[in-house]
Amino acid sequence: MSALREKLENTAENVFTAEFPSIDGGGMDAVARDAARLAPWFVAVNATDNPAAHAHASNTATAIAMKMHGIEPIMQIVCRDKNRIAIQSDLMGGALHGIENISLLTGDDVTAGDEPEARRVFDIDSTQAINITRIMATGKYLSGREIKPAPNFYIGAVENAAAPPFEYRIERALKKHRAGAAFLQLQICYHPDRLEAFCKGVAKIAPNLKLIPTVLLLKSSKTLNFMQEKISGIDVPKDTIARVASAANGTKEAYDMTLELAQHALTLPGVRGLHVTDFRHDDSLGQFMSDLGQKPRN
Amino acid sequence: MTCPKTLRNGPCGGVRENGNCEVIPDMQCVWLKAYERKVFLPLPTVWKDHFNELRPPVDMRLQGTSSWINLVTKRDQQTPAGWSTTDSDH
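Structure tokens for the assembled complex are given below, as produced in the milestone run.
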């Protein structure tokens, strides 16, 4: 059983996950450096699948490299670049290397990346991909062909609590849960009220679904402005940007603001931990985890 | 089906603050439009509940064929042999 599944299903502890930096060279030395930085704090770390439609080392290769360096991967699979055959192949390839944690996403559109002229695939959508992963864990491919023994998957997905239509996001979470998702990592959210409404709503209709909101460690209001302007589905309120931009010490203000969002998120029903994304790349990660009451793992 | 990502099970996480599409910023998200109609139109609950049904992967062999004929012949209800949903399991 993966440590992520063990912690989420058999304990009441908060679980912290992170994002493994994309690999574009640097070889295993780079993997080792990032693994050493993340290992003390996180139960499992996402191996991303060409995030924001930019090509990098593949999800499966990254997940295997992480595992070799002692980090439990959550292998992401997005629907943008692969059809149903390739997605099932990713899943079996991961299973071959003992990868259990899977997170299935629709994925950003190709227009979000640096090759917007590429063909978008989207042969299946994220909810169908979740259901297919659940079917494979029962011992068969989508075609019905047998897989023996059945692979062991702990299935997750993502949801954006702060994108319209807000009320429907709760039903969509239930739909993903019924398809097979045991946990949801949530998109970064700068509207605590929307996150709260979402978590309360999900806790009511899907009490076993584990919610893991995302927080982002950032250095200045520049990152907030970038997200507001460039990332579809993330809205950063003017007041939030102004708070960081007008502060005498913007870096500290950005840190404090993120800590407040994190502490609020952890109080919400259904929330079982946090997904921490680090855009600061300084020593604040350790401080942040300590401020959330976490001690480094062995 | 005007969703540029050809999604079949609801809107993606990229819907903009104004309700428009991630891919085509001038167009309203078609899933948002469908959801709002589902909520506001006085339809029977049994119809409204269809919105949350898990729709199976599309059979790409049907591209370019008549959806009406496929509806009448129930060809469009055929799913891959391994496909099942938790609802139909019990």
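The interface with chain B takes residues 79-80, 84, 106, 108-109, 111-112, 120, 122-128, 131-132, 134-135, 140-145, 158-160, 163-165, 168, 171-172, 174-175, 178-180, 187, 232-233, 235 of chain A (CB under 8 Å). The longest helix of chain A spans residues 250-266. Further analysis is deferred to the final report.
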